[in-house]
């Protein structure tokens, strides 16, 4: 049997490798990270900056697990992961830390017949007769008929082979911290299936619910103000969160306590890199990319793992239906990604550019098409839009499903209505608060802001 090597055991590589092995392939899954230790709860994950950052998992992730890895889904539910369903019973969100998600999939991979998990760094993809013929792992060669690049957003080895991606910085900087509810304490206020999402003047703040009474608080800003970068210090972070009344409720010391340091994020990108070169030929026959290696989007919408698992499911389906002709499957997969994944990348670029303009003080611009987030927000005012935006919201319909709603959404904004901003410091007040908290003058400023 021709062996498949999957490079990268993140959420997408794990899912892909297990599902492929269950379809009868002989699979080797390689990651430089050795995986969680059985003896300690701490997993210092190398090379994945966002590992302990706030993750929320959308409905399609639950659907993907249910279809391909129902045992892993059952294991997640057994250890306190919660699936939130809509009125029709369809999954909307899954409350789970990313580390917990990966632990359970890692355990499923270790048990999976036909799948071998190897720890090592892939230094190169070996080429023979113009095809990928395997990988070099820490100097040792491993033959393979198909190499699957699930190495995420940053792998240098793969980027050199696959060419430049489209896209650029998404204008969102993250800082996050995980907490745990005290025994018997209820979560703080919520306004969405994932927890609490707040739009403030010039930045966002969220509380994502996770498994077993854990949750994350994240502040997202545009990353341009050096004063706000001090949010990475615990005293500054706690002070700012304490000045946003609805979030302050979440971290009230009687309710919850921190379980991680404050975690700053690196530069984030919207990126897209297909399988084919400009002439429509495979960049390297025998190599196919999946997950973040194909597409990354601003984490604000929590779409990354969903887009990765949607890709994985499509790739597996094409590999199965093109039995034996992996090159045809890869070409078909590329066409599918252009139709079903790239539109989300383009949607993020449009939304991010307009969000940055609005965060800097700009108003809704009615001289240009409205970005998707504003069309969705208009449904708060015009209830007749709600059903029509639901498909986009749940990712069961592409961004183009909103095109026909432009006129009605524009009418909402032309009437003068604007989405309500949450109570809390505006962008300049946030920066001031950071400065004061850095210099220790936290309590006075937080009290002033809270008392309005
Ligand atoms: C701050 C932040 C918040 C996010 N929040 C959300 C969210 O709420 N919801 C959501 O769905 N998505 C979110 N995302 C996106 C999500 O994290 C990614 O979409 C997801 O990690 C993609 O998984 P992947 O398996 O493709 O890649 P990765 O998770 O990056 O995994 C790649 C793996 O490849 C391994 N690797 C790389 N190179 C090599 C090599 N040469 N040799 C061996 N191993 C290698 C790495 O060690 C890693 O394990 C967020 C992203 C960020 C940055």
Automatic annotation (TrEMBL):
Name of the featured protein: FAD dependent oxidoreductase domain-containing protein
Keywords attached to this entry: Monooxygenase, Oxidoreductase
Provenance organism: Mycolicibacterium confluentis
Pfam families: DAO, Trp_halogenase
The keyword Transport is assigned to this record: no
Family classification: Belongs to the flavin-dependent halogenase family. Bacterial tryptophan halogenase subfamily.
Molecular function via GO: monooxygenase activity
Keyword Oxidoreductase: yes
Gene3D superfamilies given in the database record: FAD/NAD(P)-binding domain (3.50.50.60)
Record-annotated FAD dependent oxidoreductase domain positions: 4-52
